[in-house]
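Homework-ish question, so no full write-ups if that breaks the rules, but can someone show me the predicted structure for this set?
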Amino acid sequence: VNSGGPTGADLDAFLDLALHLADAAAPVTRSYFRRPIDVDAKSDRSPVTIADREAEQAMRTLIEAAFPDHGIVGEEFGATRADADYVWVLDPIDGTKSFITGKPLFGTLIGLMHRGRAVLGVIDHTILGERWIGVAGRPTTFNGEVVESRKGRTLDEAWMYATTPHMFPDGYDAEAYARLCEEVKSPVYGAECYAYGLLANGTVDLVVESTMGAYDYCALMPVVEGAGGVITDWQGRPLGLEGDGRVLAAGDAELHRAAMELLSA
Amino acid sequence: VNSGGPTGADLDAFLDLALHLADAAAPVTRSYFRRPIDVDAKSDRSPVTIADREAEQAMRTLIEAAFPDHGIVGEEFGATRADADYVWVLDPIDGTKSFITGKPLFGTLIGLMHRGRAVLGVIDHTILGERWIGVAGRPTTFNGEVVESRKGRTLDEAWMYATTPHMFPDGYDAEAYARLCEEVKSPVYGAECYAYGLLANGTVDLVVESTMGAYDYCALMPVVEGAGGVITDWQGRPLGLEGDGRVLAAGDAELHRAAMELLSA
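A: Not a homework solution, just the prediction itself:
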């Protein structure tokens, strides 16, 4: 009756692993955060690159041990068995610039896709001690408490986040984003994946981004959706491992529709 | 021999008060942070306005009791005895948009000016449990540990913060900022006063902002300067209670000079 999707017991087992992954990545990222090393570019020897790789390797090892037939797509080490039924999508440090500059808003993203559909997502902010958990068909939790996105906001009442206005390529993306900026209550910057968590919590209404990779958004989808929000690309299509990199998340479907109209105007 | 400036004992007494002010503001701002109230504009009844006012009132009461002849300039209640030798400059919640959207990067700013010169500054991030203390002639501390700004970075190696690119008025400010954006390693957004703390810690190299009030920057000056950084307006003039709202902070004097040249090019 569940058409081949994960059972509740499957999801419990996957969630158990996902939490272990977050717990394994956390001490690695913590140990390199604000470490005073002179090399801070994204070179092989930079703390952020070392932390990224060590954390992803730790998570990959745990996945291989628990579910050797699952696929893995990671920001650092690429794709392994990406055509498997289940694919883990990992970003050990989302918010590289936050990490490099000592701002504790970077997060570890752990997503699980089943045949192209996101069924589980964890957003873990280890420095802040804050963790969002989204599981398909279950309510999203923030540090163990159920959260809900804010409903009923119009565009002019909406608090909108993007990581930076510079993330929108000149032309279509930048123009569409500029249109939205003029209509919302206020654009706010610099929260990376944290903004999607705040949207799930009901204190942010819109997040609009572009040039995103699958590892940037797969974990976010179950978190946003389990809180009652909507997250798609700018045309309203579901996000998947392949995509055009454009992401639009909203507290409710009506605000999502209004933002989509402006983006494609 | 100290030409009428505060003695070490004076500064100790002022610092003691400043820490009491931060401790008094913290429970107020904490209690309103992420409080689910529907009104979130800067109206009289919004949580951020209520928290701002209650926190500033609590701090004013303590100052009046300890040093009744000192002046006070606050974001919420304006100026009292602004021509006194000593003037406290208060911003209970710097980073209103962070506060409103549930992002814990807002800070409480407590500055003390002596005849127009900043002699003490506290940047307190109560949700993060992080506090910077700057006292004229003493090294800046971050949670009790001495910190130093990063030296020797060139513009193209510099991590630069601004709260938002939308803070620069069209024309001179926006054009000057755009020139700087093109030369630095990366512009990053959304940290408000926290960015100046990170500059003191040596993980951020430049902060450039405009349209700032005295309550936005007075507390930052001793923190930045005590860590070895430089903070002035865009022409290199000292910041004071009166100013044109433009602020430039850098990890060292050479980077500051290079940024200044580009801003006024």
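Now go work out the reasoning yourself. Hint: Residues 11 and 135 of chain A are 7 Å apart (CA to CA).
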